[in-house]
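hi! just following up on the protien thing from before. the input was this:
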Amino acid sequence: MCGISGFFRVVPEMDQSKISLMSNAIKHRGPDQSGTFVSSDSRLYLGHQRLSIIDLTDAGKQPMQSVCGRYVISFNGEIYNFQELRKFLEKRHHIRWRGHSDTEVLLECIANLGIEKSLALLNGMFAFALFDISLNKLFLARDRFGEKPVYIYSDNVSLAFASELKPIELITPHLTLNSSAIEAQLKYSYIPSPHSIYNEVFKLLPGHYLEISLNQYSGFSANDSKPYWCMAETVDKGMKERSSFSSFDGALEMVEETMTRAVNDRMVSDVPLGAFLSGGIDSTCIAALMQKNSTTGIKTFSAGFYDDNYNEAEQAKAVAKSLGTEHYELYLSSDDMLDCIPKIDQIYDEPFADSSQLPTYLISKFAKEHVSVALTGDSGDEVFCGYNRYLFGPSLVKRLSNIPLPLRRGVRSTLQVINPTIYQELLNAISILMPKLKKHKRLGDNIHKFAQIIDFKNERDLYEKLTLTWPDIALTGEVHDIAKDLIQVFSFKGLTLAEKMMWQDTVNYMQNDILTKVDRASMAVSLETRVPFLDNEVFQLAWSLPIEMKNFKGVSKYPLRKIVSKYVPDEIMNKPKSGFAVPIDSWLRGPLRDWAEELLSEKNLIETDVLDVKTIKNLLNQHLSGKRNMQYALWNVLILQQWMLGRRHR
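and the predicted 3d structure came back as:
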């Protein structure tokens, strides 16, 4: 795992101080070694910061030049099938290997097969810059699912790219804010690819690459990138293969075999590794398969809170004990969060507001004290039908579609009139007679969430409502909803609503929220994370399974649950899980209140001049008064406002 950066100008004006600034800005992504390459005409620079994971010798140093001398690469990530590719190349080509890194295998694969054929063969997470010296061309590529980032700046005389925004900001100071990107962050908590917070910078789309001729350079945009992998083709292939499963049990065995291989491939490392363990199905499945194939107890890491409504550390501890792992716990308080908040701008570069970003950073920092690589259970929900909305959404369509829309709008208004706390108080009173009701700890919030979505117009509209954090427009200027442009799958024929949601989440929410959160948080402390659920073969197999196998008789992620049941008793796994949630709602009314009120003071809102003061003050007051739980919308606003103030004061 590493950090890449680069710079090109039509007129050779290479400033060595700029080159150093770019690379040093992402040193946390690769603190073990740094390297540079400058083209013979002094117009192109490639930089690299190395986090040594495989082949710790100088044979793995980058930027790396191919044996033939034609190609130079700056590579970030891991190629999990590199050993297989190495054997493949050895059978067909005479290769003089200098080491045993996956970077060298990738470079020689491209040198012998070309970039398009090589990209199609890769199973891994990566972003890289490849310079073809012979043709004077630069290639930029990103993995299928967007685990590793690439930010790109281009004008008519220069380009810059990097694993994060910081290096680009340092050498291109006149960047302008993208209002539509800001609106997307307020609505969805993130800025979707290919957009960024700046009009002049874009993110290379996952599964795409750019081919840039430096001889005829005149600038380019995100639209110039080419896909080498297509989600629609994977889905279509999976649908055609569904009839090939002769038995349910046989399909379950195939899932376990494929998952086991994916986990084993991600355990290849020359440095210590472990796993994040929340105690849920996904992370438990990964930890169980790691432990199964380890001769010693693997290291597992979990985070907990001193709030029983959110704490999952006890569940994780029970799972770890059952698996026999070497388990480490980190308990977090509001003070820990408050200490972390000033670091958010540096960790994420652009406004990003998934509240679990803070514990993700802290558990990464904690794990780094013991290991350099951690496997995660991320993406299990998108791949194996795990989110509640995949069950709830289709049920809602079935039950409510025949009820007239005006009537549903009336019900929505009625439900929202009552304060969430009143719903909870009523439930608490009734639970004296019916103790089982005590488990519903957020009834009022859930009723309000339900009210916000029952007036859906169609499947696509329902999905938007289910994934929207805050529907209000809080900006002072005109904007375009760029996230809506990315919702394309609901016209695809032959899929259930749950499958359409899974597809859309994979290409949007998973890439732009989940994977972004984990990459930035872990790399900020030089920890590499790996995601077995995004293995090429696992992903293809999952889409080959009929939805009835993944959601079997109302039981989500059924194939994963069957794997876990072999290693952990059902009574442990059947406990309700809240996800990696943070008690932001109560903290914003308590220990984080002063921070929130200061950021959203009229003075500071006027200074940033982006958010509508009246709308934001109303949002804050609703939450602080307890009338409504607006924690997620408020968190989005707070993160944006902090980023804006920080930018003005830099």
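The chain has 31 helices and 17 strands.
The chain has a mean pLDDT of 90.
cheers
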